[in-house]
Amino acid sequence: MTREQGLVFGEVAGDYDALRPGYPDALFDHVMQFGALQAGDRALEVGAGTGKATRSFLERGLSIHALEPSPEMAAVLQQYGVDAEAVRFEQFTPRESFRVLYAAQAWHWVLGADRYDRAAAALAPGGTIALFWNKPREWDGELGAANNALYAQHAPHLEGGAKNWQLGGVLDELAAHPSFEHTERQRFTWTQQYSGADYVRLLTTMSDHRMLPDETRTTLHGAMGKLVDEHGGTVEVTYDASVYLAHRC
């Protein structure tokens, strides 16, 4: 049975909810300020996952309709009392306009050249689009070299990790679309500590790792756990949380 990479997160929905990083409070505050958003404003979330971003916007009073195509992920989301619909954004027909449309670690899974057209159609005039990602920095020094060696040995096609992410074009895409204006990008840097066991569990939630053959994934993750143990038992990951914003004309 063929597995779709964008939906494999549902296989480990519990670990995804427990281990995937959230986002800094400053990012949510900036989105609220940029969009002049207030409690009660309607928000559409694309690819909500288990609610890593959803809950922070709920705390700020937004009324959120969340789209999450993985039933397993949507089930976790619904446990938090979120209005979740198990549908792709490409198949969603809005029945009302939203003051903000946002996607956290998800917009790259939205298919189709018309995705910005669809976003604009879902937004009220003057509404905000906010697309954001956590991008982990590569480790340097001895730990970084050892990490690179593990990937070179067990999964060379995954070497480079987040360095290969192509996010720079998002701002250009927004700026080039006739329905959006006042585009900007903001970055918020923060850190997260992981034990060796938790870091390995985090890796199991990554789609490219989930797509590895079971034996390869088990061997790679076992070696990664040993590597962290050899470097003190914990690792620190520095994340750059970048948010790309624009107003609908």
Summarize it.
With 249 residues, this protein is of the alpha/beta class. It has 10 helices and 7 strands. A 7-stranded mixed sheet has the order 3-2-1-4-5-7-6.
Describe this structure in words.
The termini are far apart. With 249 residues, the protein is α/β, with parallel strands linked by helices. The radius of gyration is 19 Å and the shape is globular. Helix 3 links the parallel strand 1 and strand 2. The chain has a 7-stranded mixed β-sheet with strand order 3-2-1-4-5-7-6. The protein has helices at residues 13-19, 25-34, 54-59, 71-79, 115-122, 141-154, 169-176, 196-204, 207-210, 214-230, and strands at residues 42-46, 63-67, 83-85, 98-104, 123-136, 180-195, 234-248. It has a domain at 5-137 and 165-191 and 239-248: Vaccinia Virus protein VP39 (Rossmann fold), CATH 3.40.50.150. It is 37% helix and 26% strand. The mean pLDDT is 95. Helix 6 (141-154) runs antiparallel to helix 10 (214-230) and helix 8 packs antiparallel against helix 10 (214-230). The chain contains 10 helices and 7 strands.
